[in-house]
Amino acid sequence: MTEAMRTFEGIRRVVVKVGTNVLTRNDQIDEEYIHELAGQIVALRENDREVCVVTSGAIGLGARELGIGGRVQDVVLRQACAAVGQPLLMQVYRDVFARFGVRTGQVLLTREVLNHRRSYVRLRNAVERLLELGVLPIFNENDSVAVAEIGRNFGDNDQLSALIASKVDAELLILLSDVPGYYSADPRVDPGAVLYDTIDNVTPEMIADAGTAGSTVGTGGMATKLKAVKIAAEGGCRVVLAHGRDQRVLERLLAGETVGTVFASRRRLRNRSRWILHSAPRGRITVDAGAMEAIRHHKSLLPSGIISVEGVFQAGDVVQVNDAAKLVTAFDSRELAAIAGKHTSEAEEILSRDKNRRIIARPENMVFFDEDWDDPTVDGDNT
Fold first, then answer.
1. Considering 174, 183, 313, 314, which has the largest number of Cβ atoms within 10 A of its Cβ?
2. How far is 185 from 326, CA to CA, in rounded Å?
3. Model confidence over 226-282: pLDDT tens digits?
4. Among 13, 15, 158, 146, CA closest to 86
């Protein structure tokens, strides 16, 4: 199993995420390191691999430009630092990759872009075209407008990189961090901690044990990396966590050397199911046991099974069902509240709807959190 998980010869599309602590040295962006990393990425491209980069560092670079020390926690101040730091960071990437004859393209994202199906599909198409044109897409969260309080942010670039890997059908996500991989315990306090070569499955207990450690300018810790692994695994994407400062780390791990920790992919969902699963829900529907049993057996959700409706959302939005699933609703929150618990005939009368729109959600528009199966339609996009 270990040998198979470290076989990357057939990998064509790779997402490389670089953390703040890897990019910086002595509280400054380390251009020498970025140049060395760029050389590794160019080598991957020359071996017929498509590469996307997810970068951290904009907030920290902006804070240093503004003379602000310590951890930047205030939301508005983080936005200001990001606005200053983002063009500085991209200029570094642009200049470095230009030395290798590679053009770069900046892709700034908020969570809303991926939550809305239409904007997500347009983004995906734009990234595909950038890759066709030979441009290296460099992603970062648009921190100058993303606000945690209203759910527009990703929380950290580890999870952003996993979502991107899932959305662009990457086969491998490489998290370059300031740790060599995943340990059995915190090696800073436990000298007997063991570095794992491979991990088959990330459990809730592993995430709980990982804590919330992070740097003064970054937001990531081991817990966020494990959450990112779970997201990527849903798209059939393996993940490697490795130290970004290890010599020729990308070349060595793709050659099969024992570098970092490799996390197995869990299942392979079709693109639309992945979008549903990882979209932030706009509301919540509580259904009774009978309705839950029915939809678990791939039946449509009907109004009679709804107990309550929470939140304000539109038809076509993703909503959560109990603590078990997400679905794309065919009705808005006002309509659902009006027909909750009603039989189909009553619901049609209340809404004056024809019979073709009596179903709240069909099986193909639902994804359960705890299912572990290969989607039979994986080869189709079904966008």
1. 174
2. 34
3. 888 988 887 788 999 999 999 999 999 998 889 999 998 866 667 788 778 878 888
4. 146
pLDDT at 149 over 50: no
Q: Enumerate domains of the chain plus CATH numbers.
A: 2-273 (3.40.1160.10), 281-368 (2.30.130.10)
Distance CA 210, CA 183 (A): 10
Q: Which two tokens stand for residue 380?
A: 């189709």
